[in-house]
Amino acid sequence: MSVLIVGTTALDSINTPKAKNPRLLGGSASHAALAASFFAPTKLVGVVGGDFPAKYLKLYASRGIDLTGLERVKDGQTFHWHGEYEVNMNNRRTLNTVLGVIENWSPKLPGEYERTPYVLLANIAPAIQLTVLEQMSKPKFVIADTMDLWLNVALADLLKLLKKVDCLVLNDSEARQLTEDDNVVSALAKIHKLGPRYVIIKKGEHGSLLSGPGGLFVAPAYPLKKVVDPTGAGDSFVGGLLGYVAAQRSGSVEKHLRRAMIHGAVVASFCCEGFGLSATLKATKATINARVRELEKLARF
Amino acid sequence: MSVLIVGTTALDSINTPKAKNPRLLGGSASHAALAASFFAPTKLVGVVGGDFPAKYLKLYASRGIDLTGLERVKDGQTFHWHGEYEVNMNNRRTLNTVLGVIENWSPKLPGEYERTPYVLLANIAPAIQLTVLEQMSKPKFVIADTMDLWLNVALADLLKLLKKVDCLVLNDSEARQLTEDDNVVSALAKIHKLGPRYVIIKKGEHGSLLSGPGGLFVAPAYPLKKVVDPTGAGDSFVGGLLGYVAAQRSGSVEKHLRRAMIHGAVVASFCCEGFGLSATLKATKATINARVRELEKLARF
């Protein structure tokens, strides 16, 4: 079955101590949609400006991503994030952000999109995530991703959203901030009380945690000897995760979530090995499955 | 088979935002020996002063820990660490350290100790770890633990030690410091080049990594909803780990190391649930095995 993904479609300029990479294809929806497209038919809901390179549209299309929901504003500017990483590639800071066409965007779904069973509200303002969700007709499973920015500037919208989604994905420091609880494990129970039946906490190189009706799952990350650029790794994780779930022909979502997280972690590991989407684009079903088998061996006891 | 443990036998005064806990039984050898004693006969090599409370000697003895190698210096002062934790219990700082009888200690092993097959050089000055190792007669498996202090003030001794041990245990920031490599996975290869066939990296709440001839193992930590005092958790981990290995009747060390790390992680989880040794003392073989089974379920995919 298919996946609908809404989020940012952006141009990312990423500086590292070793290189400058201007105007890469980026954004939460780009990373997540590419990741999901390994597993399931994927529909992208986003907005770009007239400056959005045609080659990036071709890139989406080459992955079979449905672009009917990608709005193009000819006289507008594409969302642009400019950031830099420190030597260790863990700490990043934003140098500049141009919201552009995202600023006043209110997505309208093409008619045939509303019955998509799997929905990923990738990282974007919670108000936009809500607008999309309100247009959906009884989706089977809805995941929302978020970031610290929305906890700071749009908490009320986020709390409203949490009552309407099946699963929230956030990182460990965001979980601490949202619950004012320094212990991530006890924070999980507090997040469930805000709405979502499932909560997934991303911990980067330390893996991830799933909490749901079936209890806790502690998932490893794929161990990488070299991280080139972690931008989009979290989006790739959740996109790969939901794509994997959507691709299963039988059984409950619950039954597949653990292996879905492992597949998400593997797609995220590829994402980290190159700038922008470059390394993810080189991955294949075969190389993904090989890393999943490796993780099975690495985690067995 | 039995385990010999050398390290610090200390009095720990631990402040937290909520409580002061003066003169608890602490030290790397105390935590490690208690952890190992759940699984295997344990010999303790350490030194204490005349101020060392008799009740703590009784406590060791109640666990069947062999104290023939515990030196008592009547007119000396026991090693005393005074530290405090911040609210989140992850950051700690040392308020005061009195080395006391450890300062000029040169351990001499009782004759019957030299043939102990499993040796844990728990955290103490590398020169002392070397002195003990030189008195051993063909041990089957030797693990050395260390800390950032020794990387800073006794690196030459530590590097000498690394050529003589089977396994080094250290935390992720120490691994980065030792190798000047920010990536923990690639740091592992560099540490192997310094000597040890096995390297274990402790990551606290994020679990641990084992690297050895059989490849990499990514071990989960036991997820705790509340951490009271993490002091000694690393020592408990490695003590439990080696005690578990020593208790196996057949098969290679390699074969048992993964499950040994899981058992070590579980003993460490108990350690974190109380001040000093209090919570570890309440654990039993049954409660340890129950958490091991829980971890099996939590990590399965």
In the CATH hierarchy, what is the class of chain A?
A: Alpha Beta
Strand order of the largest sheet of chain A: 5-4-1-8-9-10-11-12-13
Which fold does the CATH topology of chain A refer to? UDP-N-acetylmuramoyl-L-alanine:D-glutamate ligase
| Quaternary structure state of the chains depicted | homodimer
Label the CATH architecture of chain A: 3-Layer(aba) Sandwich
How far do the termini of chain A sit from each other? 34 Å
Most extensive protein-chain contact, per-chain counts: A-B, 36 and 36 residues
Gyration radius of chain A, rounded: 18 Å
Summarize the helix and strand pattern of chain A as letters: EEEHEHEEEEHEHHEHHEEEHHHH
- Strand share of the residues of chain A? 15-25%
CATH homologous superfamily classification of chain A: Ribokinase
Query: What average pLDDT do the residues of chain A reach?
Result: 96
Low-confidence stretches of chain A: none
- Structural class of the secondary elements of chain A? alpha/beta
Beta strands of chain A, count: 13
Largest sheet entry of chain A: 9 strands, mixed
Count of the separate structural domains of chain A: 1
What helical percentage do the residues of chain A reach? Answer: 25-40%
So how many helices of chain A? 11
Q: How does the overall form of chain A come out from the CA principal axes?
A: globular
